[in-house]
Amino acid sequence: MKDVEEQFKYLKKGCVEIIQEKELKAKLTRSLKEHRPLKVKAGFDPTAPDIHLGHTVLLRKMKHFQDLGHDVIFLIGDFTGLIGDPSGRSSTRPPMTREEIKKNAETYKTQIFKILNHKKTIIDFNSRWLGKLTSFEIINLAAKYTVARILERDDFTSRLQKGIPIFTHEIFYPLMQAYDSVALKADVELGGTDQKFNLLVGREIQREFGQEPQVIITMPLLEGLDGVEKMSKTLDNYVGITESPDEIYGKIMSITDPLMFRYYELLTDESLSQIEKWKNEVKERKIHPKDLKSQLAQSIVSDFWGKEEAGKAVEEFERIFKKKELPSKIEEMEVKTPEISLIDFLVEKNIFPSRGEAKRTVRQGGVYLDGERIEDIGFQISLKDKSDVILKIGKKNFYKIVTSKT
Length: 406
Prior knowledge:
Elements: H1 4-12, E1 17-19, H2 21-34, E2 39-44, H3 53-67, E3 71-76, H4 80-83, H5 98-111, E4 121-125, H6 127-130, H7 135-142, H8 147-150, H9 154-161, H10 168-184, E5 188-192, H11 196-208, E6 215-219, H12 245-253, H13 257-267, H14 272-283, H15 289-305, H16 307-322, E7 331-335, E8 339-341, H17 342-348, H18 355-363, E9 367-369, E10 372-373, E11 380-382, E12 388-393, E13 397-403
Parallel strand pairs: 2-3, 2-5, 3-4, 5-6, 7-13
Antiparallel strand pairs: 1-6, 8-11, 9-10, 9-12, 12-13
């Protein structure tokens, strides 16, 4: 294991804040002396079935602790997920069912090992202890923190000022998350910057239970593909780690140069000195940013699909965007008649959710048939003299239209 200063430097990369740095160094020193790995915890409420690159910022920091020999606990909030984290929310989260949470949790258990070491990762569920708390124990926990302190958090303050209701169960969320740290005797807890309040409550509650307070490490919220908003499925600016290699590679190639370096810092193990060197080389035109972006995209695809698939993604991207050729694989769609309205086809095949959106895309010049742009919303697709036609939507979505054989 590396010495304390080497460990600290490695762990600090990409962090927004460490509270407190001297405490982390002290814990690392004791860990080396006593040959006892630190217990490092990060909680994930299974509120959605898929993990995207934004989630992997925390997973990668967990991996850094694993690299140094520490114990990493991937905590699935199957109990706290029933409450709903109020962090960053302007309204109460809609409740989830136990069935939804259980189903989502199962997908998490398979996806995280694309980053974390399967043999070294401890997976736990906070229902294991939170579900067993008696009414007396919950009252005792609530008595260790004041309502005034809870209401100091920005989310609640803003809602109070706007007259938006705050329900009692939401107030319990940070206390329950804090009790996770007590139950696990956590040395370190990781979270996004939006989790800072909850993580600090954890330090206080551990003290109340006679434990040494955990060090908290906050990680930045990864910007989405637009480079502005937080990566989110709701905003459709995300890269899902279960998406195909071609899709992941293409999405990364679409980001801006400044965002590329941000992704290098948070989504790879490249050193800060190396990233800074690349920035200077781009400014001095010693290296083309497109080459660096391709290298980044390949690295990210390799993390989830392996180097071979990353190489194939590069070839496919160049085939379509550089050589202007058709993709090697095109989804085939059948039509029952040799002639059909373009708009009807786009909606019936769920390529667009509505006729209005389909018409808008056609008018804007985003639809091509056999390489020719179609801007007429009354256009009829004809297969009378052809075995198939190639439909292209935007820059990268291709479909082969054929007449049904039945």
